[in-house]
Amino acid sequence: ALESARASLLKDPNVELRAAVLRMASVTGDASLLPTLKARLNNTKSARVVKQAALAGLAKLNLREADAELAHWLDRLGKGQVELGLALDVQEAAEARNDNPKLTQALAAYKTSQTPRQHLDLLSLGGDAHRGGGLFVNHLAAACIRCHRVARGPGTTVGPNLMRIGNRPPHYLT
């Protein structure tokens, strides 16, 4: 019953719902999810947020096949064959599998091949607005909300309002 409900929800037109289903299902580390994650990730019509959820799901699966798929995406990243909006997600997924020496080495090689400017460019693309909003409000170490606010939302005015921070060039953040 659960698998049929998941399959039905993954066909829903709402991309945020499809991504949420992948994220929730990935938490369990269910190996049966691997074909679905790979299919969503490799489907050129999948929305970015769905692909991001699929990458995060692969990172949670402690399977040789999942690591092989992540290695494939790291290889594509090194060759410039990954859309920039997913590049950071590929890196984060590989970092999460730090118990795999091949992925760790491939990721280190990719990172050393990047200039600081290229790295900043990656940080300005992609991401997950919902997750970022949660970090802004709830992350204890960053504590962004202590100094900033977004528009007229919660926070303070000690630091600048971050409403239009996404419109700034990456070097503005350094």
Overall radius of gyration? 18 Å
Helical percent range? 55-70%
What is the N-to-C order of secondary-structure elements (H for helix, E for strand)?
A: HHHHHHHHH
Mean pLDDT: 84
- N-end to C-end Cα span: 50 Å
In short:
Helices cover 59% and strands 0% of the residues. It is mainly alpha-helical and 174 residues long.
Architecture overview:
With 174 residues, this protein is an all-alpha fold. 59% of the residues lie in helices and 0% in strands. The mean pLDDT is 84. Helix 4 runs parallel beside helix 6 and helix 5 runs parallel beside helix 7 (101-113). The chain is globular, with a radius of gyration of 18 Å.
Structural features:
mainly alpha, 9 helices, 0% strand, 174 residues
List the topology elements.
Elements: H1 2-9, H2 15-27, H3 34-42, H4 48-60, H5 64-78, H6 84-96, H7 101-113, H8 116-123, H9 129-138
Helix pairs in contact: 2-4, 3-4, 4-6, 5-6, 5-7
